[in-house]
């Protein structure tokens, strides 16, 4: 009975995640506005990803594609901001700021003069060999071409301005492409790539996946930039700072922590405070007692207080011909402080390290536990469902991570470095107790869960297996709740009341880090449709872009296949062998996977 | 003059491009040279001359603008023209010592937007000289290369700035009175 209840309980809590999964599953019919999502943008789907933003701008302002792109690049692909500027300052100003010039040239009817004087090379050039940009400035083709080449090589493809003095207009990309490809087809390709990648480089909603070697993908998020995502290549990262997923640490805390661990700066600190380098051999010397005349093992005598070399003559209180010592009291205080800080750091670091190490050890469980399960599956006829093993294991990984990152968090939250002026000592103590209570509870339950999962339950008899099962299911539920509570405590009680709002953490997700889904098939359809409203000039010139769009379509079916479950459970499992950790399938409760 | 380029190193495209560029920039410089000869009378404040052996090296003598502490001085500028000229700006520096917020006191380097990111190929060496004369009359103390000079102006000590600038003009930019 009890068993049944807890079972039910657990699945109940897992229901949200199930819903989440179904959403993710419905790729082709997916409606982007439905809840938070993040998408993987591959090389192939990059154009399709831009297309929607481009279309919105093109439709609203009835613009051609390259104008829309120029506007969007100028406004860092923030369509809302672009529209806000439009409403606030008007169309003319919007265009002018971005360097878009749409001018009706009235002199079109007049026959062009046979030759035009190009102001750049100061030659008379037949007008057939000149190009007039939309801003009205006309120069010869070879000068334009050289200008474009110089600018592309300078990495300024995204904003190639007209050559005329003080002309802010951005050159028409099709003209650039046309002229450059005549002499330097490679460079024209590069130019196109820069334009395409602008969607990633200049967009606060899109970031490159930080995996090394680089998988070539980028991730786009919908709204909250404080989130943790998993790329389709398997690497998980914090979207906000592109380092490994580190919640409940804030990005700043994590950055400081990584730096601190790397430099072992506390040790260095201690050495600088407690030792003096010998003026002769420059080795650090620690004073082990006695007066201030210190002798280095190299034989050099020096004054401990000022570090200067001295003679050996001295009394208990002074060194012959040498006097200093005004800052003695100060130094002692400093030494004490450094020592205290070092111990504090060591405490948190040891805890952090212990949990990270456990995490690594437990990740080996993933392989062995499958063996245990298969042994049991052969043995038992009564007990068929072993999903609890994987559920428990995933929960263990997830909670273990939370636990290990909670130590650097505590180090900074309750230390002097970041929030010294934000709380009084009493406040700090109360908060610290509150947090540490929760941390302790979580820690105890995680260890228990770990113990049960590591137990050789394949050798147990049926009753004992049932008991283990119940415990694992119970503890999984408890740790999940505790993690949730800890995040709530951090968000509401610890970071929430702070004056400086720079510490934000990714919200806790019971399911684990959100896995970005590939841009779904409907994008491909859009690419297809968008062939029609494209401006006529793109017909021949925009070839490279259109070609990319084409590949998107054909590649889509295989790309979006990631969301079908049968395909990816084994794929993920294979990844446990990948060294470096952090690649466990925390994203879904395995119950969902296994129940199917 | 041009000594030729190692074709083996540059490869076919590089070779062509390099020669193409040098040709284009030389052609343009020749045009400018002719223009300068013609305009010499038109603009008495600027005297641009090209190095006899190297068309990529120019010098200019400019007169300090009137009603400034540089009035009466003649300042020498050195131009180093890049091969990608006019697509890239020439490098210009003062050879004559000058006390001005936007000129490095030791090297003579000039901080002027049109010589950096605001360069347009439509500029010529002659117009660059004109821009530099304008800069002498209208210093930009907020982006100083010469901090002492910039600080004087920023703190409102116009007299201090002017007397320093005038002193250096007299010392460095005027013919010594025998």
Strand content of chain B: 5-15%
Shape of chain B: globular
The first-to-last residue Cα distance of chain A is 25 Å
CATH topology of the domain at 331-495 in chain A: Four Helix Bundle (Hemerythrin (Met), subunit A)
Share in β-strands of chain A? 5-15%
Q: Specify the CATH architecture of the domain at 331-495 in chain A.
A: Up-down Bundle
- Shape of chain A, please? extended
Protein name (chain B): E2 ubiquitin-conjugating enzyme
Pfam families (chain B): UQ_con
EC number (chain B): 2.3.2.23
GO biological process, one term (chain B): peroxisome organization
Structure characterization notes:
The complex is a heterodimer of chains A (596) and B (178). Chain A is built from 20 helices and 15 strands. Chain A has helices spanning 2-25, 46-61, 65-74, 79-89, 91-98, 141-153, 173-183, 185-201, 251-263, 265-274, 328-379, 387-413, 416-419, 425-454, 462-494, 521-529, 538-541, 543-559, 565-574, 590-595; strands at residues 38-41, 115-118, 123-126, 130-132, 138-140, 206-208, 218-221, 228-230, 236-238, 275-277, 284-286, 293-295, 301-303, 514-515, 517-518. In chain A, the strands form 6 sheets. A 4-stranded mixed β-sheet of chain A has the order 6-7-1-15. In chain A, strands 9-8-14 form a 3-stranded mixed β-sheet, with no helix packed on it. In chain A, a hairpin with a 4-residue loop joins strand 2 (115-118) and strand 3. Chain A is extended. The two termini of chain A are 25 Å apart. Chain B is of the alpha+beta class. Chain B has helices spanning 7-39, 125-137, 147-154, 158-172; strands at 46-50, 57-63, 74-80, 91-94. In chain B, strand 1 (46-50) and strand 2 form a beta hairpin. Classes of the chains: A alpha+beta (596), B alpha+beta (178). At the A-B interface, helix 6 of A face helix 1 of B.
